[in-house]
Every structure is written in C-alpha cells, then in structure tokens.
Design brief:
Bound molecules: fe (ii) ion
Strand order of the largest sheet: 1-2
Distance between the termini: 23 Å
CATH superfamily: Ferritin, core subunit, four-helix bundle
CATH architecture: Up-down Bundle
Structural class: mainly alpha
Length: about 220
Amino acid sequence: MSNPPAALQKAPHHLQADDLLPESLLDFLGCPTPPAWLEWAYANPDILLIDHAQCEKKAASTAMSLLYRYVDQPLLLSKMSQLAREELLHFEQVVTLMESRGVGYHHLTASRYAEGLRQHMRSSDPERLIDLLIIGALIEARSCERFARLIPYLDEELAKFYRTLVKSEGRHFEDYLLLARQQTQAPIDDRIALFVACEQALITSPDTAFRFHSGVPR
Ligand SMILES: [Fe+2]
Ligand SMILES: [Fe+2]
C-alpha cells in the first residue's frame, strides 16, 4: 500500500471509488464502507490478502453447492457454473500475489458477516433459495464496493488486479439479483430491505477482528 493512513479521510478518494461503481450497486447497498474500515485494512495488508483468498474460495464453493441443489434451473446452472470458475480464478490470482509478496497462507477464523446474514434465511424452498440469492447479491455488491474503495491506497500491481475484480464482482451482483427475482412472480423488495438493513448493521458496528467483510474497529 502506497499512501499514508491520514489520506484515508480525504473525500476525493471516495469520489474516485464511486466513479468505478455502477449506480445500481451503490443504490442497492445500505451504506458506503466506513473510512475506519479502510484504515483498518491499511494497517493489515497481509490479513486483507489472506482473507480475500478465503472469500474467493467460499464464493466458488457457494456457487458449486447451488449447482448440486438446483439442477432443474438452466439459467442458475449456467450463471453459477461461470461464477464458480471466475471465483476460483480470482483465488489463484490472490494466492499467486501472496506468494510473490512473501505472505504466508494460514487459516483465519471466518468473520461474523456471512453467518450474520444467513441466520435470517427462511428454511424451505423457494423462500430459502430467494434469501440465499439475495445474500449472494449483497456479498458480491459489498466486495465490489470494497475493492473499489481500496484501490486509491494500493500499489499499482494490486490496484490493477482490484480494478478487474470490481468489474467481475459487479457482474456477479447483477446475476444473483436477477436469479433471486426470477424465482417468484411476487415482489421480493421486503426481503431485500431486511437483508440490506442487516448487512448495514454488520458493516457499521464494532467488530472483533479485521476481515475483508468485517465491521469497524472497537
Ligand atoms: Fe471473486
Ligand atoms: Fe464474485
């Protein structure tokens, strides 16, 4: 990372990040990433990369589990198959970056984030799947937003990589949302609102340890 932490408070960086992000994605999220999280990320560059690798692997694994469970949905199968391949490619790219930077890959505890969202999931289909797809859209949207906001503070190699991720995670957000809406004729806006509010609370409240999807420092 190249800029001093003091620079994190400067508004022009946020303007730069917003320029990279589609309006539909910014409207979907309940809040922007707090500057305190960006400072926390700046102070933990190794954990940022290790947990990022974990997130890519989990994203591929979630998509794979949908491939097993919903074999009667052609659009879901093609979108999730493509998504799983892309997430595994991202995983490989992060691990390669870690190796070239001498960052050792070790196990990290998961953040509270995904479980904090999944605990509100309804238990039987099609409601369960709708909720799972909304959560998928939120995780992709937040990841995309965080990559964009981190870019101004990264060295050129990492910034270039994260710019490519902003594009693909933004597309994954759209795909998950499309699949969620496709599951029912009824509006799903109340479920989206519930998960957006829950996600916002997880992002803005104090958290125990720095992770890619953590809240803010205590
Ligand atoms: Fe990814
Ligand atoms: Fe993704």
